[in-house]
Amino acid sequence: MEYEEMKDACPCQEVHTDLLDRVRAEMPDETSLYEAAELFRLFGDSTRIRILSVLSCAEVCVCDLSQTLNMTPSAISHQLKLLRQGKLVKCRREGKSIFYSLADDHVRTIIRQGLEHVEE
């Protein structure tokens, strides 16, 4: 094995049962882990990140998003549907207009921390 392959391998065959017991006790259940993976999948698209970034600044309609991101309203609407289904975005109607905003402060925090992480 080359060094790069070996550095991630454990050279011993000892199982640390006390550590594993603590990890198992603190580990989320499979359903929660699956749902978290689905949540992060939604963040895995640059268009959706751009939309969420705009929405972290202000509540806007599809036309505003379309103009800001230089995308078609249809493309924006498709992504907003996914974000709504993932409970990352909410909407409200005002007359004929529908305004979109982040679902809660958790979403804003995830976006902010993600950007802070990549800008380090």
**What is the SS-derived class?**
mainly alpha
> What is the top-level CATH class?
Mainly Alpha
Q: Write down how many β-strands occur, each being a DSSP E stretch of 2 or more residues.
A: 3
Radius of gyration: 20 Å
CATH architecture field: Orthogonal Bundle
Helix share of residues? 55-70%
Share in β-strands: 5-15%
The main β sheet shows up as: 3 strands, antiparallel
How would you characterize this protein structure?
It is a single chain. This protein is mainly alpha-helical. The protein has one domain: Winged helix-like DNA-binding domain superfamily/Winged helix DNA-binding domain (Arc Repressor Mutant, subunit A, Orthogonal Bundle). Helix content is about 60%, strand content about 10%. The protein is built from seven helices and three strands. The chain has a three-stranded antiparallel sheet. Helix 5 crosses helix 6. It is elongated and about 65 Å long. The two termini are about 35 Å apart. The model has no long low-confidence stretch (mean pLDDT about 90).
Task: Provide a quick synopsis of the model.
The chain is mainly alpha-helical and 120 residues long. Helix content is 61%, strand content 12%. The protein is elongated.
Tags for this entry?
elongated; single chain; 120 residues; mainly alpha; 12% strand
Show the helix and strand layout:
Elements: H1 3-6, H2 17-26, H3 30-42, H4 46-55, E1 60-61, H5 62-69, H6 73-85, E2 89-94, E3 97-102, H7 105-119
Antiparallel strand pairs: 1-3, 2-3
Helix pairs in contact: 5-6
